[in-house]
Sequence to fold (268 residues):
Amino acid sequence: MLILPIVNKHRVMNVELRLKYASKIRSRVFYEDAKESEIIVNREKFSESSFSKSREESAPTDFIRSKSILYPRKFLVTTKQATNSRFYDIYEVKQPPKKVNQGLDKLYGKAITDLRKEIPGETQRGRYVSFEELGIDKPLTDDKIALLQRIVREERDTSRWPSLFQKYGLSELSETLDFVNHFDCTVLSDHSIPETSLQDTLTAMEAIHTRDYKNLKKYYDTAKSNARIYTRISYIHKLLYDQPLSLIHAKQKQLVKTKDETDYQQAA
Fold:
């Protein structure tokens, strides 16, 4: 389970991140020609490719793309075997979006790896996602966002935007929106805490500087950086579509716009 810690409205929330276009098509099955934790693209297997030897988080993404050049179609991902069993589940996954940058390819690769590490019938181990560590924030600079804002406000003919974005090296911003919309981000209910409570705990633990303190501080720092980067992505969405980004949502209702997004708009 991929978990995106993020600060929103003075609370630290945990958001489950999954591929939107991945469907479980078989449960508790076993096939002689398919191993557990496998990716199968046009009958080519990840475990038998050179990509399986790579430690890059984008390796699954690179494999899928390389084996889909001639025939881009849905592919299969098998989970780990169930405990004390040889049976696993199978997911059918839509082709990844076109490459935007290495950071987003790493995120997609992590999501595929998360499916491969799933164990049927068991609670999945959470793995934190840091947008900053993946490098997703690198193209989202103040200068580029300011230039995007100027084009959107000065050029009323929206049909000219793509060519202007390409001319000034801004296409990556809009393409980032298209890429992240391939993910479903659901707030885990009853898994958020007041930001002040977390800050107080860190203050109390700072003097002893144990491993628990280091882990908790890293978690909080990740939540803050994720919020900062998400705010930038949301602001780009607001500029292009004149509405807030609804990527992160609760199970029953959409998550409202963060205050930080408004702050960024005023700063920009």
